[in-house]
Amino acid sequence: MTHSPPSAARFLDACFGRPVDRPPVWMMRQAGRYLPEYREVRRTLSFLDLCRTPEAAVEVSLQPFRRFGPDAVIFFSDILVAVAAMGARVEFGDAGPELPEPVRSASDVALLKRFDPSSAVAFTGEILGLLRREVGERAAVLGFAGAPWTLASYLVEGGGSKSFAVIKQMMGRDPETLRRLLELLADVVGDLLSFQIESGATAVQLFDTWAGELSLQDYREWALPAAARAVARIRRDGAPVILYVNGCGHLLEAMAESGADVLSVDWRVPLSQARRRVPGKALQGNLDPGVLLGTPARVAERTRAMVAETGGRAHVVNLGHGVLPSTPVESVEAFFDAVKGGPVSRTEVEATLKADS
Ligand code: CP3
Predict the structure, then answer these.
(1) How do strand 282-287 and strand 140-146 relate by DSSP bridges?
(2) d(C-alpha 247, C-alpha 13), whole Å
(3) Longest C-alpha distance within the chain, in Å?
(4) Following CA atoms 291, 295, 297, 298 in sequence, which dihedral angle do they give, to the nearest 10 degrees?
(5) Burial class (CB in 10 A: 0-12, 13-18, 19+), 98
(6) Cα(53)–Cα(198) distance, rounded to whole angstroms?
(7) How far apart are CA 345 and CA 357, in angstroms?
(8) How far, in Å, is the centroid of ligand 1 from the Cα of 146?
(9) 90: CA distance to ligand 1 center in Å?
(10) Which of 42, 92, 150, 307 is the most buried (most CB within 10 A)?
């Protein structure tokens, strides 16, 4: 079998619904702990130091590109880097992110800053510029940000949550404060994604990971207008916008009103059903990351079946959420190979990287 090399043009064509030779493929959280070379870098640098050190962040972003040759390289960072730049304290422990001074009142919101990304997160621009130089047209370079609702839920809850009880309490008892926070976050996200595109990102993804916790009514009232405000503020310069929501089965039609070009869906919704419900939108997804814990043969079979749901048209192949840290590298290889039509030679990807540098 021959394999087709990665391509930024193929990625953009799929996002805009144009014909492609095969669907593009990448993987959420493709740079991370399932890779031994990532764990090696993390022995010497804390997570936040890694996000803030351009050479190291570029190296880690390129690790999956060298191994698998995805059609998109997402820059290494975290959605909470923006929240830290607004003045909130953010700590990354083994149990996930923690914000020891949560936002609970109007005066807490007033302390958060709308910042200038070119000074407050200049390292982000540097990482994207370096990545774009490294990969050239061989892959899209993806910028990203948390969507306002998801960022607000970390700020208000003080970390991850199962019930979202604190932010839902604010929704019901102090709606003006929540509204003000979401508007501020929408403006911050718009500034940030515009800066990422100016710095070299060819496409951007908004992660509204926790918006699936809302009823359709509350999604329309709270998360959607804030995401739409952020999308409207992005100076796109041709870059498509992808919107991801985990647990989005009840929200697809509403998500299509956000202004995003591509809807990234979790594994609970069959893509054939998503296509019927939002026919004009390109789709991204949606293999269950849990499938990658199985054998490579099973991964290949499930991946092909997933691509068959869209016929590979207007489809950016991905997982339905981030790859799990315990995933075997061989299963990730099987996922990429199943889309690309054959194994990718590592030396070939390295040779093209060298040729352009
Ligand atoms: O490869 C990529 O996709 C780029 C890097 C990336 C990270 N986080 C690196 C990371 C991206 C796009 C994110 C987004 C992010 N961060 C989201 C939205 C996407 C999603 O997965 O739902 C959310 C909700 C966060 C917040 C966050 N950051 C959590 C909940 C955690 C802890 C859970 C976990 O997986 O450990 C993080 C830490 C984090 N972000 C790690 C990585 C590689 C692990 C840090 C480590 O090395 O220990």
Answers:
(1) unpaired
(2) 26
(3) 62
(4) -30
(5) middle
(6) 20
(7) 19
(8) 11
(9) 13
(10) 150
> Quick one: tokens of 152?
């607000």
Statement: residue 133 has pLDDT above 70: yes
For residue 269, the one-letter residue type is V
| Closest atom of ligand 1 to CA, residue 92 | 38
* Neighbouring-strand partners of residue 25: 317
Q: Which bin fits 136, alpha (ψ -120 to 50), beta or left (φ > 0)?
A: left
Ligand 1, pocket-test mutation among 40, 73, 79, most atoms within 8 A of CB: 79
The pLDDT mean for the chain works out to 95
- DSSP single-letter state for residue 158: T
SS3 211: helix
Report, as an integer, the average pLDDT of 248-252: 98
314-353 CB burial, b ≥16 within 10 A, e <16: bbbbbbbbbbeeebeeebbbbbbbbbbeeebeeeebeeeb
Confidence of residue 357 (pLDDT cuts 50, 70, 90): low
Q: Where are the alpha helices (DSSP H) in the chain?
A: 8-15, 36-42, 47-52, 54-68, 80-85, 106-110, 117-120, 122-135, 148-157, 165-173, 175-199, 216-218, 224-233, 252-255, 271-277, 296-308, 329-340, 346-356
Helix pair 175-199, 122-135: axis angle to 10 deg: 40
Index of the ligand 1 atom closest to the CA of residue 30:
1
* Ligand 1 pocket member 179 (CB < 6 A): no
Question: Which pair of structure tokens corresponds to residue 169?
Answer: 């309490």
User: For the segment 278-290, what is each residue's pLDDT rounded down to a tens digit?
Assistant: 999 999 999 999 9
Instruction: Give, in order, the Cα–Cα distances in Å from 168 to each of 22, 138, 172.
Output: 43, 44, 6
CA dihedral defined by 195, 239, 317, 97, rounded to 10 degrees?
A: 20
Smallest CA separation from ligand 1 atom 25, residue: 79
